[in-house]
Amino acid sequence: MKKINIILALFASFLMMFSNPVAAGEIETEHCLTDDEFEARQPNDLEALEGIKTGRIFWDVTIGDPKSLAGRLGVIDQTYRDMVRQNVTPDMILAFRGGAVRLLASDLTGFAEESHPAVQDVQRSLRQMMDLPGVRMESCYIAMRRVPLEPENLIRGIVTVNNTFLSAMGYGQKGYISLPIH
User: Fold this and answer.
1) Could you tell me if 147 and 26 are in contact, meaning their C-beta atoms sit under 8 angstroms apart?
2) HSE (CB half, 13 Å, CA atoms) of 57?
3) Residue 162 burial (C-beta neighbours within 10 Å; 0-12, 13-18, 19+)
4) Nearest to 138, CA basis, from 111, 108, 168
5) From CA 160, how far away is CA 137, in angstroms rounded?
6) In percent, how much of the chain has pLDDT > 90?
7) What is the pLDDT of residues 150-163, one digit of tens each?
8) How far apart are the C-alpha atoms of 132 and 178, rounded to whole Å?
9) What is the pLDDT of residue 90?
10) Which of 18, 30, 73, 101 pairs as cysteine with 143 (C-beta 3.0–4.6 A)?
């Protein structure tokens, strides 16, 4: 009986989520903040960033699913913009290894047709980020050999390194914090 009550409670919660206008996508825009109002109300990170002039982040990217990676790239982009907003100069390296290197291929014929739009979205986001000052992207050749993918077949702007584990070690010793994107 206890299990049935738990299942019923979960089902009721599920139904309530879909009766909620916010969850259903029926948000009233009348009370939404403009971009400027949102920017003015954003909290700051003054205590953590006190005395920090440059934000050195080594993003260790292994996500091979384009939809999942697209969401994480949005957070990386927001992190960049938050640093700029709070007067910290971004110095970010996105290092791709594992299954993530597949998403860097300029030729999409190795992907199922239905995944092309998601991969193209990821690549569009990467190109936009590469244009930002203080952003570098690199791909692990060890992982690329397993795909297989050669450096000349990467989207433009991605630098091939032999081993991103060595990159992580080297940049870590230069003061970069390593953040996993798995």
Assistant:
1) no
2) 20
3) exposed
4) 168
5) 9
6) 76
7) 999 999 999 999 99
8) 20
9) 98
10) 101
Which domains, ranges and CATH numbers included, belong to the chain? 54-181 (3.40.1260.10)
Tens of pLDDT, residue by residue over 63-95, are 999 999 999 999 999 999 999 999 999 999 999
| The two structure tokens encoding residue 159 | 């630098």
Structure tokens belonging to residue 114: 């239905």
The two three-digit tokens of residue 165, written as one number? 């584990």
- Name the packing angle between helices 116-130 and 66-85 (round to 10°): 20
d(CA 70, CA 79): 14
Q: What is the pLDDT of residues 32-63, one digit of tens each?
A: 778 777 777 889 999 999 999 999 999 999 99
Give the dihedral sign, CA 64/70/75/76.
Answer: positive
Distance CA(175)–CA(80), nearest Å, equals 17
Calpha distance 68→156 (Å, rounded): 22
